[in-house]
Design goal:
Elements (H helix, E strand, L loop, with lengths): L1 E8 L6 H13 L5 E4 L2 E3 L2 E3 L2 E3 L1 H9 L6 H4 L2 E3 L5 H7 L6 H12 L4 E5 L16 H8 L3 E7 L3 H14 L4 E8 L7 H11 L5 E5 L7 H4 L5 H7 L5 E2 L4
Parallel strand pairs: 1-7, 1-8, 2-7, 3-6, 8-9, 9-10
Antiparallel strand pairs: 1-11, 4-5
Enzyme class: ligase
Organism: Thauera linaloolentis (strain DSM 12138 / JCM 21573 / CCUG 41526 / CIP 105981 / IAM 15112 / NBRC 102519 / 47Lol)
Protein name: ATP-dependent dethiobiotin synthetase BioD
Length: 241
């Protein structure tokens, strides 16, 4: 049984994958077998001659367990848009059972697993609204690490996301502030408000705007001991739910 956490964000394009890759890289330095997974990804690029989603490529590069792109992300779609829309454009659907089976198959080869959601916390996986990324987090029943995009609106987005996480009976185990707007007014006051509003969930890092946000560049801005503590006995990803 691997120990795992679920990483979500307050919005899309707020650096969720770069933070997830940094966490994967840090855990891998301990000698443990670590992988980053992103079960659903929309938007395909050509990277080193391979057609692959950029986020999937970043997580695979940070992992020290050799997984294929399909093992990391069983559902990758061409169009860079909402996943259920991208799936419909290809005449496909996002299958819940296949995702959960893929996550557990990959986890069986690992000591630690970081499962990244897509976009914000509640992103539809079908056009009927019957299953979304929040439901995936609940299916896995893992502690949730939230990436907060530090820009105007961050407080509202973070508090609403935290409320949605807790409403599903999940534990918000911490948050990382990632600077999106380096010229944001009153950033310090915003961080203070987030610390108060998010209550028992600790801040595990404040990442500045970096010219090249690689896992190695991000790592010094994260609370490494606290991140290791996230993967304790209540974060077990069981092979059989």
């Amino acid at each position: 049984m691997a120990h795992a956490c679920f990483i979500t964000g307050t919005d899309t394009e707020i650096g969720k994958t770069t933070i997830a890759a940094a966490v994967v890289g840090l855990l891998g330095k301990t000698g443990l077998r670590v992988a980053g997974l992103k079960p659903v990804a929309a938007g395909i690029s050509v990277i080193d001659g391979e057609r692959i989603n950029e986020d999937v490529h970043a997580l695979r590069a940070a992992s020290n367990v050799a997984l294929s792109a399909d093992e990391i992300a069983p559902f990758q779609f061409e169009a860079a848009c909402a996943p259920h829309v991208a799936a419909a454009l290809e005449g496909r659907s996002i299958d819940r059972g296949r995702i959960l089976a893929a996550i557990r198959a990959a986890a069986a080869r690992c000591d630690r697993v970081v499962v990244e959601g897509v976009g914000g916390f509640r992103v539809p996986f079908d056009d009927a609204g019957g299953w979304d990324s929040a439901d995936l987090a609940r299916d896995l029943d893992l502690p949730v690490l939230m990436v907060v995009g530090l820009r105007l609106g961050a407080i509202n987005h973070a508090l609403l996301t935290a409320e949605a996480i807790r409403a599903r009976g999940l534990r918000l185990c911490g948050w990382v502030a990632n600077t999106i707007d380096p010229a944001m007014a009153q950033a310090s006051a915003t961080l203070d408000a987030l610390a108060v509003g998010l209550g028992s969930a600790p801040c595990l890092g404040l990442v500045p705007r970096l010219p090249a946000p690689s896992p190695e560049a991000i790592a010094p801005y994260l609370n490494v001991p606290a991140l290791h503590r996230l993967f304790d006995s209540d974060s077990v990803l069981k092979e059989n739910p």
